[in-house]
Amino acid sequence: MDFFQKLLNIVLLPLSLTAILFLLAPFLFLKYLFSLKRNICSENVADKVVLITGASSGIGEHIAYEYARRGAVLALVARREDRLRIVANKARELGSPEVIVIRADVSKDEECKQFVNKTVNHFGRLDHLVNNAGVVRVDFFEDSTDIASIMDINFWGSVYSTHYAVPHLRKSKGKIVVISSVAAWLCTPRLSFYSASKAAQICFFESLRAEFGPDIGITIVTPGVIESEITQGQFLPKVEMPWMPIEPTERCAKAIVDSTCKGDMYLTKPSWIRVGFWMRVLCPEVFEWCLHSMLVIRPRTHQNKDR
């Protein structure tokens, strides 16, 4: 067994790279053909029921508007009911036949159960679940407080919502949209817990995709820096990335709904950020050097505290 392991360590990587070189061109051609087919057979979401968490602002708000333009009926979930009602009114103006508003906190298991049940009881079905609710806190690891809440909302919130939605999505052959982040692999200072929560989210839903098979489609979205309440003000300077361009929210939301309707497995927006992912996989040392050379690293100020 040891010999076999050593043999695999020596020959498997060069053989795999050689196979990739030979198969890459036909693979890309087939991928292009399948992409054309998905564009032609894109799902019509008119009158379908879409539940969106974190719909009071940012990406979630504009995803609601994009679904509304396509005639979907909406269940909008967030903690700020006043903001949800504003979003709901605009969604109706844009073409959604019916919109309901549900105030809830996704970090609470029982509240997730309630808003899924309210949606299904009201509309009689559920076709798409958009796990968008999330928070970000920018801080050095040593200064971090209330650590658990980031994981509770970003990771467990999507787990709870999905757990209660799955039986209904199976019936409708529905879809799950996971709004994660490039921070899952583009790890920068002051975002350690946010990055960890998003990485956990991706791994969890990739496992679910293997479990569900064709019963439920899962589209995992990894946006870069998108225009929203989170990224306004001092966000980019705080995370040491003042050079990062900001993607308009409307364009990102349209791309997300397009990819979901086509049944894409992954979407990265803007697409140029994928270059960084492949650099990280193939040349981690080069990726690390490039990332550190672009970051404006400021030393943490240590303060002596009386104990």
From TrEMBL:
SMART domains: PKS_KR. It comes from the Eukaryota. Keywords: Membrane, NADP, Oxidoreductase, Signal-anchor, Transmembrane, Transmembrane helix. Residues 48-229 form the Ketoreductase domain. It is found in: Membrane. InterPro entries: KR_dom (IPR057326), NAD(P)-bd_dom_sf (IPR036291), SDR_fam (IPR002347). It is a single-pass type II membrane protein. The chain crosses the membrane at residues 7-34. One of its GO terms (molecular function) is oxidoreductase activity. The keyword GTP-binding does not apply. GO terms for cellular component: cytosol; membrane. The keyword Oxidoreductase applies. Belongs to the short-chain dehydrogenases/reductases (SDR) family. This is Ketoreductase domain-containing protein.
